Amino acid sequence: MADIQAELNYEKEVGVPFTDTLTGLFNNGFFQIALEREISRAKRYGGNFTLFMIDIDSFCYYNRRYGPLKGDLTLKEIANVINANIRNVDLAARYSGDVFAVILTESELSTSLRAAERIRCSVEESDRSNLTVSIGLAAYPIHGENKEKLIQRAQDALCMAKLKGKNSVYFFENEIKYADSSRSKVLIVDDEPLNLKLLEAFLIPLEFEVIKATNGEDALALVSKVDVDLVLLDIMMPGMDGFEVCRRIKQKETTRMIPVILVTALNDTDAKVEGIKAGADDFITKPPNKMELIARTNSLINLKKLNNSLTSFENVIFSLAQAVEAKDSYTKGHIERVKNLAIMLGWKMGLSPKEIEALKFGGALHDIGKIGVPGEILNKPGPLNRQEWEIMQAHPYIGYKICLPLQKNLGIALDIIRHHHEKLDGSGYPDGLTANEISMVARIMSVADIYDALITDRPYRKGMNQKNAFKILSQEAEQGKLDKKVVKYLLESRFSE
Ligand SMILES: [Fe+2]
Ligand SMILES: [Fe+2]
User: Strand runs (DSSP E) across 31-123, as ranges?
Assistant: First the structure.
């Protein structure tokens, strides 16, 4: 940046503006020239430098609250803080609005990080109505070898700094570690910076990765973008309160499994009742007791890990079930249709949530045993002979054996897998069970399965129309093979559509 003075002299002589009139820093135009120059210098002579993108957190709220005049003054003050914390050889510019850019010449990343932290702390410590800054770093040449790439990386890093709860410094190396990290991520949400600091101080020694948010909107944005393992949520916050944040987390399919601990005032029973209604998993009282906080946090994080493994278990099982369809080319979509039909029947018949869950898993897995049936039999373009039929009839038992180690997770869904071809009169397979030995969920699956098989095309016959399919189902119900009530519900549901 030795040429800066010369540039300023040049500016004086020719009257071309290089400085931002409000803050006195260099303007964006000059910053672009300086960055290009720094890149060619580094290319020519070697060496590193770092680019900072600095953004004032929630500055639009500040402007709205105090007015643009105060806002402009503050911009100027923060510009001065930045300038005071860099060397003469470095360059600070107003990049746009409330975003500043800094070029730290010939500096290693570690030095730059310290400088960025210095700026962040100085802004935080100076008394400006709790204003803070977030800083994104990009180092040449690690993060980019041209101007556009470097600016982009610094802006992306700035975005991550915001996502991590603002008032922080971020660079891409961190992000890589961040994504690969096996450390549990705890999101703490509180509008009071002191409370955030206190919670953070408790959690960091436990090797948790702490992410911060100072309001409900930011907290919701974070949980949908970052794989958070636990949320510690203050109740009383301006704007969206903790109950509403909790409710929204619990309502969304992708975030509902994240445990939420509400931080309440001591003995506030009403808040606890409201919190339970909102779906909170636990409570801690304010001010938090360190041991209590650690115990509750650890136990819920372990639960979340268990749920995660259960979710991946679901994924594995469902992909396995899909693999059957790939093998049996004539049953495309059968599993999904049967599962959905069985769930719908379950709801209509007033089954419990546990039984509906069993229909979901059982529906997805009912034919998983076909993995053990040779493809030539599954895809034979004609009726099966006796021997082939015997092999085919083994699929409920094979499926049962495959899923047996998962008994604890599958519960009565396992019963569906084994008994979805049983008949009430004992003529079904594999166990030849009779009426009261066959569970309601297995009866439902059996009707849904037969109905779907009847109405879809097979290689040796066309799928029949609904009316004929119902005729067959009703006959089987009359003969005491299928559950009459289930058939009746199916009939009603199809004709009411
Ligand atoms: Fe089957
Ligand atoms: Fe089936």
Answer: 49-56, 91-96, 99-104
- Quote the ligand 1 centre to 474 CA distance (angstroms): 20
- Ligand index nearest the alpha carbon of residue 395: 1
Set out the domains of the chain in order of their start, with CATH numbers: 4-170 (3.30.70.270), 181-306 (3.40.50.2300), 328-496 (1.10.3210.10)
Tokens 């639009």 -> residue: 60
User: Could you tell me which residues come within 8 angstroms of residue 103 by beta carbon, excluding any fewer than 6 positions away?
Assistant: 1, 31, 34, 35, 38, 49, 50, 51, 52, 90, 91
pLDDT tens-digit series, residues 48-68: 789 999 999 888 888 888 888
Helix (H) / strand (E) containing 220: helix 216-225
Asked if residue 211 has pLDDT above 90, the reply is no
Please state, for a pLDDT cut of 70, what percent of the chain lies above it: 89
Whether the per-residue pLDDT at 239 is higher than 60: the answer is yes
Per-chain residues with Cβ under 5 A from ion ligand 2 = 367, 449
Convert the pLDDT of each residue in 100-118 to its tens digit: 999 998 777 667 888 898 8
pTM of the model: 0.45
Q: Is 210 helix (H, G, I), strand (E, B) or coil?
A: strand
The CA 324 to ligand 2 mean position distance, Å, reads: 10
Residue 191: which region, alpha, beta or left (left: phi > 0; alpha: psi -120 to 50)? alpha
Count of alpha carbons within 13 Å of 455, Cβ hemisphere only?
Answer: 18
